[in-house]
Amino acid sequence: xxxxxxxxxxxxxxxxxxxxxxxxxxxxxxxYYTSSxxxxxxxxxxxxxxxxxxxxxxxxxxxxxxxxxxxxxRIITDNTTIPVVLARSxxxxxxxxxxxxxANDSILLRQKFERLKQIxxxxxxxxxxxxxxxxxxxxxxxxxxxxxxxIFQLGVVSIFxxxxxxxxxxxxxxxxxxxxxxxxxxxxxQLGTPMSSLMAWIDLIEDDPSQANDMAFGEMRKDVDRLxxxxxxxxxxxxxxxxxxxxxxxxxxxxxxxxxxxxxxxISIDYQNKAEDLYCEINLPLFEWVVENxxxxxxxxxxxxxxxxxxxxxxxxxxxxIDFTDNGSGIHPSKFKTVFKPGFTTKKRxxxxxxxxxxxxxxxxxxxxxxxxxxxxxxxxxxxxILPIDKNG
Length: 393
Prior knowledge:
Elements: H1 2-60, H2 69-78, E1 84-87, E2 93-96, H3 100-103, H4 106-117, E3 123-126, E4 132-137, H5 141-207, H6 214-236, E5 244-247, H7 248-261, E6 267-273, E7 279-282, H8 284-300, E8 307-316, E9 319-326, H9 354-365, E10 369-376, E11 380-388
Parallel strand pairs: 6-8
Antiparallel strand pairs: 1-2, 1-4, 3-4, 5-7, 8-9, 9-11, 10-11
Helix pairs in contact: 1-2, 1-5, 5-6, 7-8, 8-9
């Protein structure tokens, strides 16, 4: 399970890095595209101002072509976005497309003129009488907004990354809580059967000391051994277990017999072997844990505390197939995959972490497959395990 958690955190880390990388790409592309667009627009505005200056020179020329005056006048009046200050040789300033407060105040206009000197080189208008006029201009409002657009875009991306980071952090903490709660429930779930059996034997012997016979002590020894196995199981979580070739008929028969002797009397557990001897490479303590979890979950799915469970072993297409079928409350089809996620539960006990562990043990440690084969609400469920067969067994 620790490997599962590590994998989950590793996946989340990859997603976070991918989001950051995506945000950087968006930022770089946005800055490059906006900068390229701004450069093109700036070049167009320079051409417009040169044309505007040429129109001003043509209108001021008394010997110019009168037929073109309306054309030049239109060029001048069409400029409604680029702020312009026209400086005459006598120091007089004229403005266009400036805020009226600035245009009508000589001091503010002079201050604006000094700022425009720092932005662009002036365009010189050489008049026929030898006088020079100078056109100083600023970037248009559209170009100014375009310059700030990348900053706005990066701000939006940054907010998106912050929200994504907070969401992932919350999801991680939530999953951690589910894992720890589920692990605690699973520990109690695992210890419950042998502990209940031991307590029952102790109560029986206290009530009737004559029951303290070899059979009673033998069963109590089995429960103590079971507690040792449970300890061993939890110690193997997060490490690679040793696999051994074992006969699946014997493994399943023993695991089912143990659970059958410690299950409610109104619940029958039947084991069926529909194949020849099959040998699989397994870790016995962990695989018995799989069987117990599936049987316990089947028992928990029976609200009235009565029903039947059938464990069937068979061979199909060179694989060992094990079906766990119950006639319990069933699972909705939309939950077939969700039941294997940490923290998922439909009841007060069970399915908090058990099926997540089962899936990890079967698929990661034993290179097998487990899934919900079919299920009908209020009729029952079948879990299927598929394991590779050892042909040398």
